[in-house]
Amino acid sequence: MNIKKVLLIILAVLFLIPILYVGYLYVTYLEEYVTTGSGYGFTIGEGKEDVFNKLSQKYGSKVKRYRFYKDREIYSKDKIEFSDEEYNGLKGYDKWKFYFDEKHIDYLAFYFEEDNLVKIERHRQYFELP
Questions:
Q1: Per-residue pLDDT tens for 49-82?
Q2: Do residues 42 and 54 touch, judged by C-beta distance below 8 A?
């Protein structure tokens, strides 16, 4: 092989790696909202207790951290136990966000009105936006 071919191959590889990486990030990025029907094992209109129990069964071991919101009040904890006591502490909040990683880039959020589920948000990104 001559030098020109080797340099051409090296340049092609150096050019393709960033393009393939950006393509991977684009394909794995997820931002989805469910406001009717069902998604991720939950159904719009379900009560908070049903959502909590399903979340425990389906995602319990994967949850690394969670936050609950009501107006300007935020409650955050590193580990959820999915117990009756835990549920009684969070049922007064209208937005629940469960993180599957420590960087807060992979989460499932639930929005409630009058104790019924009105929106599910699923977000995942393996990169930080500037």
A1: 999 999 999 988 888 888 877 777 776 777 778 8
A2: yes
Q: Compute the distance between CA of residue 78 and CA of residue 23 in angstroms, rounded to an integer.
A: 32
Per-domain boundaries in the chain: 31-124
Tokens encoding 82: 């999915």
The sheet carrying 30-34 orders its strands as 30-34, 116-124, 106-113, 95-99, 65-70, 73-77
CA-to-CA dists, residue 123 to 2, 21, 40, angstroms: 49, 19, 12
End-to-end CA distance of the chain: 42
Tens digits of per-residue pLDDT, 90-102? 888 999 999 888 7
